[in-house]
Specification:
By secondary structure, the chain is of the alpha+beta class. It has four helices and nine strands; from the N terminus they run αββαββαβββαββ.
Length: 205
């Protein structure tokens, strides 16, 4: 009896169709854009942070301008907010705040607030964000969240205006250093003595 070759020929046709539809001689590989990283060098150790220049471009550019000009050389972490020093605040947070020494360096003009409802960033554990008073007053001071702090996002209740703060990065390494600073001796919320920022530099430079 003569064997039929039809099953084999059908299989070959299916394989040919799959090869034509799937294989493309030109494979374009799109690589994710690498975000800049900085090293915050302090008396208590280093903190490595990633700066989100994609989602918060204005705030990131402002911060990196201070970094690239060496203006955080001999700056300081001067404030800690934790459970034992905010009795008068209805909405509790935990952060450390640092910035330029105003006796040594004058900052640039304030920048526009990049709200978290626009950037889609949020104040999670290790988030870096800009300190401010009014909505358009941020200059060089920044803070790092210790634990998740949703009250600092847009619509949060920590700031009476409800506009939140401009998150622009996150700690990748060194949260143990952040927690040491948060627990350091303080008079109220003022670190005494301040924790020195020896410098902030871009990683790899």
């Amino acid at each position: 009896m003569k064997r039929s070759c039809r099953p084999i020929s059908v299989l070959l046709r299916v394989l040919c169709v799959l090869c034509v539809s799937v294989v493309n001689p030109k494979v374009v590989r799109v690589e994710a854009q690498a975000l800049p990283r900085v090293i915050i060098q302090t008396d208590l150790g280093n903190i490595e942070a990633e700066i989100d220049s994609i989602h918060a471009p204005l705030t990131s550019a402002n911060f990196l301008r201070y970094v690239d000009l060496g203006m955080y050389h001999l700056a300081r972490f001067h404030r800690t907010v934790r459970a034992d020093n905010q009795a008068d605040s209805k909405v509790k947070i935990a952060v450390i705040q640092g910035g330029l020494d105003p006796m040594r360096v004058k900052g640039f003009p304030p920048i526009k607030l990049e709200r978290t409802n626009v950037t889609k960033l949020s104040h999670k554990d290790g988030t870096i964000s800009m300190a401010r008073a009014g909505p358009e007053t941020a200059t060089s001071d920044f803070f790092v969240c210790v634990g998740d702090q949703p009250s600092l996002d847009f619509g949060g209740k920590r700031n009476p205006d409800g506009q939140g703060f401009a998150a622009f990065g996150r700690v990748m390494l060194g949260m143990d250093v952040v927690r040491k600073i948060n627990a350091a001796p303080a008079n109220g919320q003022t670190l005494e003595p301040p924790v020195r920022i020896l410098n902030i530099v871009r990683k790899g430079r």
